[in-house]
Amino acid sequence: MKRSSETKRRRNVAEEAEQGGGEDPAMWESLDRNFRQVQSVLDRNRSLIQQVNDNHQSRMADNMSKNVALIQELNGNISKVVSMYSDINTNFSSAFHGGNNGHEGGGGGAGTRAN
């Protein structure tokens, strides 16, 4: 449910900006692409958290030891998401305050971290 409402909110923000003077569709496409990459990592985190919970509830030693690697991946993904949001913020700000070049060059920065 939450994901659906967030997707609708992002679309509404993008549509309003385009109608209200958002003259650079490429910037909005880049922003949308970057948010999709963030969402992909967040979806993976949701899966990891479920696996960690399942392993913990099983109380089996082997499953508990698997949680170490799962939590390490989760921790790395959280750092990745923070970095991706930082890049999105920088690119978005640059597009509005420094000309419409925020999606050029740096726009792929968030995308490279999602891989």
What does this molecule look like?
There is one protein chain. The chain has one domain. Helix 2 (25-58) packs antiparallel against helix 3. By secondary structure, it is mainly alpha-helical. The chain contains 4 helices and no strands. This is Protein EARLY FLOWERING 4. Residues 23-103 form the Protein EARLY FLOWERING domain. InterPro entries: EARLY_FLOWERING_4 (IPR040462), EARLY_FLOWERING_4_dom (IPR009741). It comes from Raphanus sativus (Radish).
List keywords for this structure.
115 residues; mainly alpha; 4 helices; 0% strand; Protein EARLY FLOWERING 4
Write the layout of secondary structure elements.
Elements: H1 2-19, H2 25-58, H3 61-97, H4 109-113
Helix pairs in contact: 2-3
Organism: Raphanus sativus (Radish)
Protein name: Protein EARLY FLOWERING 4
Family: Belongs to the EARLY FLOWERING 4 family.
Number of domains: 1
Radius of gyration: 18 Å
Ends apart, CA distance between termini: 26 Å
Number of helices: 4
How is the biggest beta sheet arranged? none
Helix content: over 70%
Instruction: Tell me how many strands there are.
Output: 0
Q: What does the average pLDDT come to?
A: 80
Elements, N to C (H/E): HHHH
Shape descriptor: elongated
Please report which band the strand proportion falls in: under 5%, 5-15%, 15-25%, 25-35%, 35-45% or over 45%: under 5%
SS content category: mainly alpha
Low-confidence stretches: 100-115
